[in-house]
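Example A, followed by Example B.
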Amino acid sequence: MSLAAILDKGDIVPFGNIHHGVHVAGIAKGYEALRAVEESVVNGTLQQLTLSHRERSVFVDLLGNLGSGEASCIAIAKERKGIVVADDSAARGVCHQWGCSVTGTIGLLSDLRRERRLSPQQANGLLKEMIQHGFYSPVKKVPY
C-alpha cells in the first residue's frame, strides 16, 4: 500500500480496509505520500478498521518482532481470514507461523493482471516504476 501511495497509484490497490496504524505511523515517519491513504479513508474509498479484543491481543504479541503496520495487518488477517500483502521476509515468516495467507507485491500485480484490472503493459510499467523507486524485484516482468 505504501509504495502504491508513493507512486500515486493507490487507486489500483484492491483493498477496502486499512488499520489506522498502517498509514498514520508512516506519515509520522515522514512518508508524506501516505497522506493519499488518509484522504482515501476520509473520502470513503478505504474503510478504517478498529482492532477487536482478540486482534489487539495478536497485535501486541507481534509487536516484539514487527512494526505496528505489519503487526496490525497480520492480526486482522488472522482473525478475519484475510490476505496479507508483504514483501518483508520477517513479516511473511510470521504470516506462515500464524497461519495467515500471504502474497507479495509481484503476486498482487500478477493477480491484478489476471483479473484484467491492469493490462500487461500497465502491470509491467508499474513494476518498472517501483524498481526505479528502490523496490527490489526478483523479476523484470509481471508473471501472468
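Example B, a separate protein, is given below in the same form.
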Amino acid sequence: MKLAGIGKTGEPGAKDLNMEHPRKLVHTSRQLIRWGDMDAYGHVNNTVYFRYMEQARVEWLESVGYRCNAEQEAPVIVHADCSFLLPLNHPGSIEVHVFTGNAGRSSLMTFYELRLQGDDRLYAEGSAKIVWINPASGKSVSLPDCLRQLAAG
C-alpha cells in the first residue's frame, strides 16, 4: 500500500495532513486551467478545485468500467473536502492524482492531490467518500467487487 502526500505548506518534507489514511494511487488526470476558472482575485476559484477532483474521479471510474447512469447502481458523493495550500493561476496545466483508501460495505474513500505540471509542490489536497447506491430506491448497495479489490490491492 502506498502512503502518499506532501504537506500542509506544499513543500517536500512538511507534515503530511493525510498520512494516517493508507492510500493507493489509481489514476492521474491532466487538466488545463481555463481562464474562466479564475475569480476576481486572479486565482482559480475554490469551487473549481472540486470540479478538478470530480473530473479526475469520473475519468478513473470510467477507466475501470463504471459510467454514471440513472438506470444502474452508481456512486454518489456523501462528503467532500479540500485544503487549499497554494493558489493556481491561468495559464497552466495541473495533475490530479486519485488515490483509493479504505473500502466499507457500500463506500470507498478517495483522496486527491493537485499539482501544477512540472512543479512538485502540493497545491491542494482533498478527499471524497463515495457511496454506491441504487438510484431507483436511493438506498446504498454493496460496493462492486472490482472496486473493493482495486482499493485493497
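On Example B: The domain at 24-152 is CATH 3.10.129.10 (Thiol Ester Dehydrase; Chain A).
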